[in-house]
């Protein structure tokens, strides 16, 4: 049985006071929730401040990125050890904004996934197709490539550390959510692919989140799908009431 996992990706939003208030509000609202794993991923400059607010809560902390090297001359990057030092449990890797705005490749993403697992962070590997790829009926091909390349060299045992987030790029920040059927179709395809790459037991244990305009009003419908195990939430994760409402719906 896969425990639902809802994570908030705050992206490049908030200031320090706002980040602390959001974290404190969630810690308070979600005190009695223990049937859902919850995490928030603030901008890295606010990780430590947010960690303090979450210290005695059941909300975990994640980063929005990680670098694959341990230390040294890598200006602007953050290592697994640094992120763990400020209490991160998870790391979002290969988000579509990093793929398509910053230019990250599957090869770089694979190095980050591998380094995160080795370094003791739990990767949330994001995959998803562009609108033109969906329209050209290339969703399966694109997502399959992203998963195979992103997970190259990851063993079945290590795979248990990984969450996959399916985020169709055309649904991110657009208000256009994938329908529950569209989400389920791709999630089932991803699980079948994991069974082929690993084995059915492993595939059955990996959590697959949906992301892309998830909000309180569509949470129940999306989460009712057998292969949708959680949500990776952008905009709606920036408001205590919305994010808490989504988690309570799932709980
Ligand atoms: P929105 O929920 O704002 O569409 O963002 C989704 C996302 O990119 C989460 O990582």
Write structural notes for this entry:
- The structure is a single chain.
- The chain is an alpha/beta fold and 251 residues long.
- The protein has one domain: Aldolase class I (TIM Barrel, Alpha-Beta Barrel).
- 45% of the residues lie in helices and 16% in strands.
- It contains twelve helices and eight strands.
- It has helices spanning 16-29, 47-54, 80-85, 96-102, 106-118, 131-135, 139-150, 156-159, 180-197, 200-205, 216-223, 240-250, and strands at residues 5-9, 37-41, 59-63, 88-93, 122-127, 163-166, 207-211, 230-233.
- The chain has an eight-stranded parallel beta barrel, surrounded by seven helices.
- Strand 3, helix 3 and strand 4 (88-93) form a beta-alpha-beta unit.
- The longest helix is centred in the last third of the chain and has 18 residues, at 180-197.
- The model has no long low-confidence stretch (mean pLDDT 97).
- It binds 1,3-dihydroxyacetonephosphate.
Give descriptors for this structure.
about 250 residues; TIM Barrel; globular; binds 1,3-dihydroxyacetonephosphate
CATH class: Alpha Beta
Tell me the structural class. alpha/beta
Q: Please give the number of β-strands.
A: 8
Q: Radius of gyration over alpha carbons?
A: 17 Å
* Continuous helix count: 12
Mean pLDDT comes to 97
């Amino acid at each position: 049985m896969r425990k639902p996992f809802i994570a908030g990706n705050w992206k490049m939003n908030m200031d320090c006071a706002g980040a602390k208030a959001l974290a404190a509000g969630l810690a308070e609202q979600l005190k009695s929730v223990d049937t859902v794993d919850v995490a928030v991923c603030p901008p890295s400059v606010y990780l430590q401040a947010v960690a303090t607010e979450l210290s005695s809560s059941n909300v975990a902390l994640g980063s929005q990125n990680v670098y694959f090297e341990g230390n040294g001359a890598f200006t602007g990057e953050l290592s697994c050890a640094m992120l763990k030092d400020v209490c991160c449990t998870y790391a979002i890797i290969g988000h579509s904004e990093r793929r398509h705005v910053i230019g990250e490749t599957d090869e770089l993403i694979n190095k980050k996934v591998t380094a995160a697992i080795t370094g003791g962070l739990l990767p949330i590997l994001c995959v998803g197709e562009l609108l033109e790829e969906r329209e050209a009926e290339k969703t399966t091909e694109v997502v399959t490539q992203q998963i195979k390349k992103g997970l190259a060299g990851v063993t079945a045992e290590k795979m248990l550390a990984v969450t996959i987030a399916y985020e169709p790029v055309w649904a991110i920040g657009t208000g256009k959510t994938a329908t529950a059927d569209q989400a389920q179709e791709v999630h089932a395809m991803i699980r079948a692919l994991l069974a082929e790459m690993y084995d059915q037991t492993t595939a059955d244990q990996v959590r697959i989140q949906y992301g892309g305009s998830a909000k309180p009003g569509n949470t129940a419908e999306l989460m009712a799908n057998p292969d949708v195990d959680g949500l990776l939430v952008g905009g709606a994760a920036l408001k205590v009431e919305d994010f808490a409402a989504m988690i309570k719906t799932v709980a």
